[in-house]
Specification:
The complex is a heterodimer of chains A (about 240) and B (about 110). Chain A is of the alpha+beta class and about 240 residues long. Chain A is built from 7 helices and 11 strands. In chain A, about 40% of the residues lie in helices and about 25% in strands. The chains are: A alpha+beta (about 240), B alpha+beta (about 110). Chains A and B meet through helix 2 and helix 3 of A and helix 2 and helix 3 of B.
Amino acid sequence: MNAAAEVRESMLRRTAYAVLARAVRGRRERGGEWGEAVLAEFGETRGGWAAVRWAAGGLRTVWQERRQRVRQLPRHHRIARGIAVAAAVSLLAGLAFSRYVMSVGYVVTGSMEPTLQISDRYLLDKVGYRLTGLDRGDVVLVSVALAPGEKRHTHVKRIIGLPGDTIECREGRVWRDGEQLDEPYLMPEDTEIGTDCSPVTVPPHQLYVLGDHRVVSMDSRQFGTVAEDAVEARMVTRVWPVQR
Amino acid sequence: MPRPPPASPHTLRLFEALLADPPRWRYGYDLSKETALASGTLYPILMRLSEQRLLETGWEPSEEPGRPPRHIYRLTPDGIALAEQRLAARRTRQAPRPSGPIVQTRTAGGAA
């Protein structure tokens, strides 16, 4: 065997031993009986990969030995332990789920009235819309700065225009590609007062968004179109109050 | 005796090795070589057999200075009986079926 191969083998062996010793003993002077047993035989192995295989089996042994110790604990102790582990795991899973998959949003402004009123809670989908794509009429959570240089905040708005759509306002009504929109979700007062906006053709990868409560909402009429990337979630449904 | 271990093919291979010379103390590494079982398979079986008092274990101080004591194993009388019974059962299973009525040999309960 040449020198390089020898060095590699000795490094493999030392690493395998260090990992196994760490698993068996942790910070203690001496580990469990069976972990120590595997460790004591380590010196019998020959070659680098044989040592790695031996150590890998040793890790499994350590794991089994630990499980055996847990099984031997008093019943109430085992149950308490199980509950603690289950609680920790579900807490982590829940946090990850709410961060990346679905969560509940809380309405802080009246800009989406009457669809969403202040203090309503609504279900947010953070994954589905990436698969199905966004559509006109979808209510989304977008992260925008209301004025250039200001901090970005998330706002709930309705998608009015997708890339390529031409949006304009005539006689207080919103028109898309020359067709007047039917907007049953508006506040009655907004239907009377009407919506005023400057005409725009939505650029690629941008969205034109408006709040349902046109007289109070800050939206694409002020800050222009928003990037598709700024969408953080899509509203699935209101969850609280259940009925209005 | 607590519940007898399920005699997996791995366990049977280990029984064979341990029954070759029952009073002799054996090392884990040698058993692993002899049975071709990886350490991750062999040791959990040894652990279980020992828990069920079928296997005796001990530590043997190493003759070479600086080397740790080695863990050693041999079957207990209960272990020997069970190992023999399980290996016999396997031989019966593997034997070609007799043409006449099937006679099932079973050892009586108790220590078996």
